[in-house]
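Researcher: Sequence recovery benchmark, item below. Answer with residues only.
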């Protein structure tokens, strides 16, 4: 029987609920690059400069951040394929305002936005994005996350089979010409396909978003052990592609099924670390710390946890790592991948 697709809307941040838990900051001097956050001004949901500043200044030593595509600030006129360039213009203005204010954190030191890689004139869009970002543009996220059981809640809902489209792969292969990277947001059943893409496009630097989206809702609910075994085997195979990195974060999203947002109290860093340790350990074992980077995925994950507690959880998860490994996981890998010079 065909699977009935359901929507899983993300829970919005609830400051009163988040305020019910606070923790002392662990290792407050450890330098951190947050390589994955968004900025937006949507009806009923805003996350702009003052909001990201409040989070990065909540106790941890966040030295830089990277903005990732989320459909913000698109142009409302002109050729359709060029409208996403408005996102880089929108984020650049915020980044420059942050620079004018000063502060320890280089906000949006890197910008990743969208171009439809299937376009025959994708190079023109890439060049427009680079120019609009004022030296900050680092890559493209063309979302591919697709599952017949899930109605996508992202800014771009991809067609099934996007990564197998020859036009998509042709456009993907244009990224190295512009010194750009690719953000892979997929669900765990698609990891095998991404491995094929990475092998077909060995010159393209790819970073897997959010652990590769191990699902825990719909037909995957109650099957965490089964999903983990499949995910783990596919992650090991993907790690054999030297051009692929992975972001460790995003598991607080509704689709992962941990449901922290539904509890009377926000999760502690210990609770999150316990729930997520198998995924973190598997990725670091497969990829090595020099190809892994912790990410906040804020404000999406803010629906389930605060910024300060989230990075405490990451520090607990890295507690057994060497000083060198920690430097990669929290800043070095991201700085190198996004050419931040930090």
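Model:
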């Amino acid at each position: 029987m065909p699977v009935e697709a359901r929507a899983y809307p993300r829970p919005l941040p609830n400051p009163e609920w988040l305020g019910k838990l606070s923790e002392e900051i662990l290792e407050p001097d450890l330098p951190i690059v947050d390589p994955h956050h968004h900025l937006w001004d949507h009806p009923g949901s805003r996350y702009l400069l003052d909001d990201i500043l409040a989070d990065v200044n909540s106790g941890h030593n966040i030295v830089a951040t990277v903005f990732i595509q989320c459909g913000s600030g698109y142009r409302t006129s002109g050729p359709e394929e060029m409208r996403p360039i408005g996102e880089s213009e929108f984020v650049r203005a915020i980044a420059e305002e942050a620079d004018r204010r000063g502060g320890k954190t280089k906000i949006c030191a890197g910008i990743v936005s969208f171009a439809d890689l299937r376009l025959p004139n994708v190079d023109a869009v890439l060049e427009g994005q680079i120019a609009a970002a004022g030296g900050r543009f680092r890559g493209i996220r063309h979302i591919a996350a697709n599952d017949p059981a899930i109605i996508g809640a992202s800014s771009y809902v991809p067609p099934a089979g996007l990564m197998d489209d020859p036009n998509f792969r042709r456009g993907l292969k244009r990224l190295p010409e512009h010194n750009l990277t690719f953000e892979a947001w997929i669900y765990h059943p698609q990891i095998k396909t991404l491995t094929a893409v990475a092998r077909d496009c060995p010159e393209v630097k790819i970073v897997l978003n959010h652990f590769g989206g191990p699902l825990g809702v719909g037909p995957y609910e109650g099957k965490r052990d089964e999903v983990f075994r499949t995910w783990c085997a596919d992650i090991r195979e993907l790690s054999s592609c030297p051009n692929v990195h992975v972001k460790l974060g995003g598991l607080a999203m509704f689709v992962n099924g941990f449901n922290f947002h539904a509890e009377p109290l926000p999760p502690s860093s210990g609770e999150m670390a316990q729930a997520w340790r198998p995924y973190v350990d598997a990725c670091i074992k497969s990829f090595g710390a020099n190809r892994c980077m912790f990410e906040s995925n804020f404000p999406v994950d803010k629906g389930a946890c605060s910024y300060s507690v989230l990075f405490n959880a990451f520090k607990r998860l890295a507690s057994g790592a060497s000083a060198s490994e920690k430097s990669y996981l929290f800043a070095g890998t991201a700085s190198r991948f996004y050419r931040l010079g930090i």
